[in-house]
């Protein structure tokens, strides 16, 4: 186990000093693109203006014969594009793959000054983060970088879920965690074939009213991902890092996508992945608190003064705990308003 007093020491001579906290930057969507796909790559400069995070994906969804082209494509795009306030991330190949070492070494050397976060897939325990942590420190020192590149883990194996608390706490470099429902379903041997979302077979059924078991009993579809998201949110919150829902693969079903994203938002996630341009505005809408919620939060905070005691607002009791919830809402609204002039006008903070 690492000496807690050494937690914030650089892991290589000359590497930037780790920061004690993860800066909260608007992170409503992580927009995935394949840098080896010319059509997608051509859209990056425009898409980057609309999203909070743009991610060049090198792992799954990139064909084996395109792995090197994707890596080089990301380097070319990063060098040619001014991303402004938008974060640039990459998802490297998994740690057991033949590409990951070159992914990390080449990207940090070539575009380390532009990369904000490296997303690491299929993280199973703290040992995976420790490996990436030390390697990044060595590469940052060699490249003369003056700030750390952060690390984001995907929770997509049964072992990873079992170890999620130690993953979240493994390094000051940890920025956050995303749920990877497709790989997780395979790892758990769940009997689904979908990329995220619900399943019509996963239900609870109303009790029978008489002898007839077959008619008049409503069924309610349940959320397959509730347990994992809630556990991931707790692990992230206890370590002050950010939880994200991952992909929703049914691109055409924009309604269910919005529902899945909203469930994640309500449970504490700050954002989700967008796999297709149509999912960008869904994430923007869902992960920005509504002006009504923000106005209510403002009223409660103003009425509560120093936060102690209890007041009635619209027939409901508000106290220290509900005031804290409202402060969470207002903090998020303020940081989003700084980035988005439409939200700034709608929130009027
Ligand atoms: C899902 C797609 C394969 C769909 O692509 P396509 O069939 O080309 O869709 P459209 O014809 O509707 O596209 C319209 C135009 O938009 C461009 N496009 C599409 N997607 C993107 C994008 N993500 N970024 C930028 N531009 C995009 C198309 O090129 C079309 O352009 P044009 O012809 O000029 O009009 C595709 O969207 C896609 O591949 N998306 C990314 C998929 C991905 O990254 N998957 C990996 C993440 S999910 C995962 O890994 C699972 C997870 O790890 C887990 O385990 O759960
Ligand atoms: Mg995956």
UniProtKB/TrEMBL annotation:
Residues 29-194 form the HpcH/HpaI aldolase/citrate lyase domain. GO terms for molecular function: lyase activity. InterPro entries: Aldolase/citrate-lyase_domain, Citrate_lyase_beta/mcl1/mcl2, Pyrv/PenolPyrv_kinase-like_dom, Pyrv_kinase-like_dom_sf. Keywords: Lyase, Magnesium, Metal-binding. Its cofactor is Mg(2+). This is CoA ester lyase. It comes from Aeromicrobium duanguangcaii. The lineage of its organism: Bacteria, Bacillati, Actinomycetota, Actinomycetes, Propionibacteriales.
């Amino acid at each position: 186990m690492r000496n807690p007093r050494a937690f914030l020491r650089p892991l290589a001579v000359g590497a930037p000093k780790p920061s004690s906290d993860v800066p909260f930057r608007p992170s409503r969507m992580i927009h995935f693109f394949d840098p080896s796909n010319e059509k997608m790559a051509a859209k990056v400069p425009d898409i980057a203006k609309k999203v909070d995070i743009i991610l060049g994906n090198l792992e799954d969804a990139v064909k084996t014969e395109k792995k090197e082209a994707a890596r080089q494509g990301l380097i070319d795009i990063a060098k040619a594009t001014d991303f402004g306030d938008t974060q640039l991330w990459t998802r490297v190949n998994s740690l057991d793959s033949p590409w990951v070492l070159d992914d990390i070494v080449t990207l940090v050397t070539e575009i380390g000054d532009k990369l904000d976060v490296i997303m690491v897939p299929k993280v199973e325990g703290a040992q995976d983060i420790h490996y990436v942590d030390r390697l990044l420190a060595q590469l940052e020192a060699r490249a003369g970088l003056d700030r750390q590149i952060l690390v984001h883990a995907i929770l997509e194996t049964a072992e990873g879920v079992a170890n999620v608390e130690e993953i979240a706490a493994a390094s000051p470099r940890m920025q956050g965690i995303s749920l990877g429902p497709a790989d997780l379903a395979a790892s758990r041997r769940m009997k689904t074939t979908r990329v995220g979302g619900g399943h019509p077979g996963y239900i609870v059924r109303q009790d029978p009213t008489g002898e007839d078991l077959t008619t008049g009993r409503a069924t309610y579809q349940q959320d397959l991902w509730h347990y994992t998201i809630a556990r991931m949110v707790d692990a992230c919150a206890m370590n002050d890092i950010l939880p994200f829902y991952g992909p929703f693969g049914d691109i055409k079903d924009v309604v269910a996508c919005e529902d899945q994203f909203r469930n994640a938002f309500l449970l504490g996630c700050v954002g989700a992945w967008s796999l297709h341009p149509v999912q960008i505005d869904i994430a923007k809408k869902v992960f920005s608190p509504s002006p009504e919620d923000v106005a209510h939060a403002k009223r409660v905070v103003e009425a509560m003064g120093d936060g102690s005691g209890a007041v009635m607002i619209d027939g409901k009791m508000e106290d220290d705990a509900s005031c804290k919830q409202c402060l969470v809402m207002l903090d998020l609204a303020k940081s989003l308003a700084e980035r988005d002039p439409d939200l700034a006008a709608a929130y009027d903070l």
